[in-house]
Amino acid sequence: MQIVKRYFLTQQFAFAALGFDVQSMSQNGSGRILKYPWLFLALFVLTLLQYISIGHFAYVNANDIASVAYSFSMLCQGVVCITKLTIFFFKRRDIMEMVKLMQTEVFNAQSEDLAIIRKENAKDVFFCTVYAAVVSGTGLFGVVMPFMRILVVYITRGVIVFPPPVSSPSLWDYTTSYGYVLVCVWNMIRIHTLVFTTVAIDTLYSWLVTNIVAQFQMLDHRFQQAAWTTAAYNGCEIGVSGEQEHLLSDCIRFHNRTLDLVGELNRVYGAIAFVKFVVSSMLICCSIFFLYSSGSSQSAFSLFYQGLFFTAVSMQLAAYCYNGQRISDESELVTTKIYLAFPWSLLPVTTQRSLLLPMIRALQPCEMRGVFFKVDLSLFVWVFKNAGSLIAVLQTLDDAE
Q1: E strands of 242-384, at which residues?
Q2: Taking a C-beta distance cutoff of 8 angstroms, is the pair 54, 71 a contact?
Q3: Is the dihedral of CA 29, 31, 32, 34 positive or negative?
Q4: Is pLDDT of 341 > 60?
């Protein structure tokens, strides 16, 4: 059964590029998620080595604030990338079990619930497609940018000059054709890992949140159905049958199961969100400072790449914060939906007590947490405010020189 067109396709393609088999996350999957361990290990080690090289370059050139800001912005994204890969690797089985559970809920949904699932997943597919295009476009420009600079220099000056593709010291002479090709291949491997790690893990997070939100909406619909099945009343107390009590009990169990899904999401993604938002302030600060301070001293290609890079990072943060806000809002609505669905003054006391349980629990909304802080739209604003403060510090250091 097809949920929507291109359902889970972005996640499947991105994880496959890293050596993971997403088909193992399906209902009848094999259970072995890491299909090509040597591919994963090679990508991880080579990427880690180049980010260490970039960090060394920033240390050696500490007197040039603009160059350090350019390198440090890439280093920060590298820290996030390596952290995501490491956490996903060690928690891959927990994530796989959670995805399997969600896939089971999706494919076993009834017709009325299926309409909600399709509506939410259609929006998620659109977002994931746009997000993957932006991140992939940024990575592709990072790959071709050195060759474009070579072409411009050759057209304007008539000579071939090999600029390093990234601001990192090379372990060999890159001024020769063979040496430069080797440097570019290493850079391509780093960008490949960065792009597909970012797309895979971030779009998987978006998919999980989308289907949890759909679970809350399905819960609201089921409570409304339970209210509609109550017997007609003429101003007297409603009689609730055993079947109707059973239906209400199913709704309460469904609510508890949805809350457990939110807790599991926090367990597998909390550390990723923590590192992402702690590092992102410095990343955004360095990107904006480089754009502000470099001006005409840097090539238009570098400035344009940093602009794309900043756009992709902003989309990452917005996706995490917006989805965290959605979980909080949808979980909080449960109380209101239950209260409006039932004629409380006419319900038996036992039924009122049963309904009070999910209502009291929903008064404290679910939260997506980055270990120590709540991930919502206010955090998105905080990251940029904090980045602005760091930019002021860098500007002071630059003026002092």
Answers
A1: none
A2: yes
A3: positive
A4: yes
Other Cβ atoms less than 10 A from the Cβ of 234: the count is 5
Residue pair 370/270 in contact (Cβ under 8 Å)? The answer is yes
For residue 98, how many other CB atoms are within 10 A of its CB?
20
Amino acid found at 296 = S
Contact criterion met (CB below 8 Å) for 265 and 210: no
Burial of 179 (0-12, 13-18, 19+ CB in 10 A): middle
- For the segment 104-160, what is each residue's pLDDT rounded down to a tens digit? 777 777 777 788 888 888 888 899 999 999 999 888 888 888 788 778 777 887 777
Which residue do the tokens 């972005």 mark? 10
Tell me the pLDDT of the chain averaged across its residues.
79
Q: Phi first, then psi: what are they for 238, rounded to 5°?
A: -75, 140
Which tokens hold the place of 73? 């912005």
Q: Kindly tell me if the per-residue pLDDT of 196 is higher than 90.
A: yes
Q: What is the rounded CA–CA span in Å between residue 6 and residue 121?
A: 10
Q: Quote the pTM value.
A: 0.86
* Residues recorded for the chain: 401
| C-alpha to C-alpha distance for 324 and 318, rounded to whole angstroms | 10
For residue 164, what pLDDT is reported? 66
Q: Are 195 and 241 in contact (CB under 8 A)?
A: no
Q: What is the largest CA-CA distance in the chain?
A: 94
Q: Contact at 8 Å (CB) between 368 and 374?
A: yes
Cβ(142)–Cβ(148) under 8 Å? Answer: no
Distance of CA 379 to the CA centre of its chain: 15
Distance of alpha carbon 280 from alpha carbon 11, whole angstroms? 23
Lowest average pLDDT, out of 26-35, 38-47, 256-265, goes to 26-35
* Residue 285: how many other CB atoms lie within 10 Å: 25
